[in-house]
Design goal:
Number of helices of chain A: 4
Radius of gyration of chain A: 16 Å
CATH class of chain A: Alpha Beta
Distance between the termini of chain A: 18 Å
CATH architecture of chain A: 3-Layer(aba) Sandwich
Helix content of chain A: 10-25%
CATH topology of chain A: Dihydrofolate Reductase, subunit A
Number of strands of chain A: 11
Mean pLDDT of chain A: 96
Oligomer: homodimer
Number of domains of chain A: 1
Strand order of the largest sheet of chain A: 5-4-3-6-1-7-11-10
């Protein structure tokens, strides 16, 4: 079975995914009156499940409102013990190394995965386990914050797949890992 | 007289302009058999002079061969005392704050400037003195190196001007400072 790990994330021009106090308001600085989903629904149709860390999971919980995901979520955390009752069929907690986690997810029959959240993306990249990077750049320099990327044990070459500009302002580029 | 400070620079996906030991070989990882200049000549026609730091100047000197610039160069350095004899009409050494340096350059009649080199770009951005950012992204994650961006005293909003893909692989986006 073909396996694919896809990152889909927004970042500032200087590579931050959140402000230093986890601010996310700048992600919405470009008016989007018609609620263009920037390729999110299309991504959802390509994947079997979503993998995220505790921070991202808790951020989504904090948004409140309806649960936004139609796919199963795997939350990587060594400390979380339980998920809210209404999400128990939608969310699975996992712990262990990236390799162990992936094995568990594959055994459950999920092969095409959306990898989300800074730390989780970084941990997958360190193991060279990301096959596609889809990044949407917001035209702002934050100057400080939480970085999308971290150090890597080796250089990773990618191949440009496509670039689209949404709302005249948001540049979204997709890259496939060159193997 | 209208004044404009333009950055034109290549960076990795993770925002580095050079490897940790100043490696630049990855800048040429995409074959460019027809020597597409990626907009460099067009930039040269828009500007009056180039401003760079000592490191960039010395890197260009190290390349050897013919002097690559048709425009006057201002090199910002507090330590350099002299430039090679054959460049004395083409290169001016300047020291002082970014504001003082800019004033000197403007008084000499140069208004449209290409601002080059990591430290110099960072110092101009800290003073909010960059009007246009033109960045070409090389499809590689270096994992470590010399960063294009640094911390800023405040968030800076830009407006997307255009995006072009060169050689199918190099995404070049231009942004104007939103004032």
């Amino acid at each position: 079975m073909k396996r694919k790990n896809i990152v889909f994330i927004a970042k500032s021009l200087d590579g931050f995914i959140a402000g230093k106090n986890n601010e996310l308001d700048w992600l919405e600085m470009i008016p989007n009156p018609e609620h263009n989903d920037l390729g999110f629904d299309s991504l959802m149709n390509e994947i079997d499940a979503i993998v995220m860390g505790k921070t991202t999971f808790e951020t989504v919980l904090d948004f409140g409102g309806e649960w936004p995901y139609k796919k199963h979520i795997f939350v990587l955390s060594n400390s979380l013990k339980t998920v809210p009752e209404n999400l128990q069929e939608k969310v699975t907690l996992l712990k262990g190394t990236v390799q162990e986690i992936l094995k568990t997810i594959h055994v459950k029959g999920f092969y095409n995965l959306y990898i989300d959240g800074g730390k989780t993306v970084q941990n997958f990249l360190k193991e060279d386990l990301i096959d596609e990077l889809r990044m949407t750049t917001i035209p702002v320099l934050l100057g400080e914050g939480i970085s999308l990327f971290d150090t890597l044990p080796k250089l990773l070459e990618f191949s440009h797949v496509k670039t689209e500009v949404f709302l005249g302002q948001l540049v979204q580029s997709s890259y496939g890992r060159k193997r």
